[in-house]
What we know:
The structure holds two protein chains of two kinds. Chain A is α+β, with helices and mostly antiparallel strands. Chain A has 20 helices and 16 strands. In chain A, strand 8 and strand 9 form a beta hairpin. In chain B, helix 2 crosses helix 3.
Amino acid sequence: MDVRAQVSMVFHLDKCIGCHTCSVACKNIWTDRKGTEYMWWNNVETKPGTGYPTLWEDQEKYKGGFEKSKDKLRLKLQGKLGALANIFFNPYLPTVDDYYEPWTYEYGNLFNAPEGNDQPTARAISMISGKHMEMKAGPNWDDDLGGSPVYAENDPNLRGLTKEERQELDELKRMVFFYLPRICNHCLNAACVAACPAGAIYKRGEDGIVLISQEKCRAWRMCISGCPYKKPYFNWSTGKSEKCILCYPRLESGQAPACFHACVGRIRYLGILLYDAGRLKEAASAPDDKLVDAQRDMILDPFDPEVIAAAQACGLADQMIDAAQKSPAYKFVKKWKLALPLHPEFRTLPMLFYVPPMLPVLARVKDKLYEVAGADRDGLTSLLSSLEQARIPLRYMASLFTAGNEEIVAAVYRKLIAVRVCMRAQRVKDVPEAEVQQALAQGKTSLEEAEAIFRLTALPTFEERFVIPPMAREMAIEQTLDPFTHKPEAGFGSRQPPERKW
Amino acid sequence: MFDYLLFAVFPYVAVVLAVLVGIYRYVTDRFSYSSFSSQFLENRMLFWGSVPWHYGILIILLAHLLAFLFPKSWTALISVPVRLYVLEVAGLALAVVTIAGLALLILRRLLNPRVFVVTSGMDWVLLAALLVQVVLGFLVALLYRWGSDWYLYTAVPWLVSLLKLKPQIQYVTALPWLVKLHMLGAFLLIGLFPFTRLVHLVSFPISYLWRPLQVVIWNRRSRI
């Protein structure tokens, strides 16, 4: 057993209010430089929608991730020889127009314009060329489904839906949506790492954070095409790829990453997951409908004495194992099986997991009564509509989170419903005991588990949400260096400003 | 004396500059050792410029190099007239493709405001030098036919003498000035190499062919 630790993340989508505070926190710290204006290492998308960059999920267009051919796992983008052949021109690279051209306004004109008959205006100017420009897209141009026929209808996840289902969504398009915050998934089988011809991208052994060495990056641009989530971004000013660094300088000094820390809805959890690296290939090449299970199997139980012994043999620090035991990620992903990876069919084994949002209740006012459609189907109270009648079809959720396996998504929802029914029974006391038992049985859960899920979902403290182990950076510095000198410099190896001087 | 400066001193200066400044730049500013791609800002013209240019110039340079390294085999190869014709025509065609590609790349940098912004002064110098050099090469091939033959008896012995550190410039001084300019242009480009984005030549990622796909770096242990 090759036990390794991974800093993993869980986003509870039910709690996301789409405020973009995470994106702004990230931008203010990391991407407010020239060349990075368009980069959103953390972004929040409205679903259904086409996302950022436009249509990133469409791998027929961008060739991101891995595919299985004859039981072998290969990059969808190209083989190794193909990488060298395409080095002068990358055929699948999104350009700035697939994101947006960053702009600012000519504010100076408001003060400096000569006196005249008209009010001076501040026209938009491109932050790349400095010329006047027409804005055609911007960050979150499709926020809350604005311009839905243009954006939402083209969501690649809607492909599996029937015509009627699509029409139904269309009718209600103004009301049915949820938010999908995205950062780098820090994948176990990262496609950006595999695609980089220069070998500049690497995974940190101790904590699994994926980073791009700015010194080694030679601007071949293959990571951007290779990553199916389009999370490496090209800095047009320095000619280097950059991506989310999971705020490792913050993590190393015990702080949560900025987007996690800033999250208003407190949807984010961060903790260690132990996994068996020996099973990486096996898990990444499982059949589509088994991908989620294969990834769950790969994650190890940190309480299992065998796992602990193997972890120690692999050189994992005790505090890492301790953090893995307290990890909220372990509970959501493995113990409760509530959190799912985003698009596991890309086969990169992403380590950011999502608790899917409770589907909006489908209800109509009939004879002045509020009627929840299909509520009687499951035999439960009219708290929630039945899964089969869900406003967003389960197949859509399955396309996002389980590579099309609807059973897994349904199981997650039945458990989430059970938690709600239980808590309703406890707080409002208007649910008969028989129904509580029925919901628990359907959700394959127990009262204790439901209460624990409720606690970690609704009432977690800061320390429960973010269990950050000491990152053992003392292992990385030389004995000759004073730890107090090193501490304020944590994380940064590069002393050069990221500018191209030659 | 002037010829001696040009054909016996200047080549050494260029090569020494290329090596020393190249190493200095690699040690002090590895960050800049890249192609500095602008594909992100403009895609379409780049395709029609970059692909013909790179593949064209690579094949042409390879032919120059092969003839230099294996003069005997090269002589044998062109000893049959048909092969010589094919080689010369192919060379001319490639030169046209290369010049067209490069011209398009230059136009792209001039016309597209986004790409113009990321083009430095040295980029323009390099682009001009490259254009002059490939046009000279094309003219030499066109006006002084059978260069694949006479190259072996003029430039090659001169280059060999340079390599042996006993420069013998008489092999080249009597050549037409177009040819001489092409030879000097080559060394000018070598001299320009460390100061421009030409450094991306030596960063060609050949090691990608044998490295494992996943890269994991540990603090202390060396373990994959």
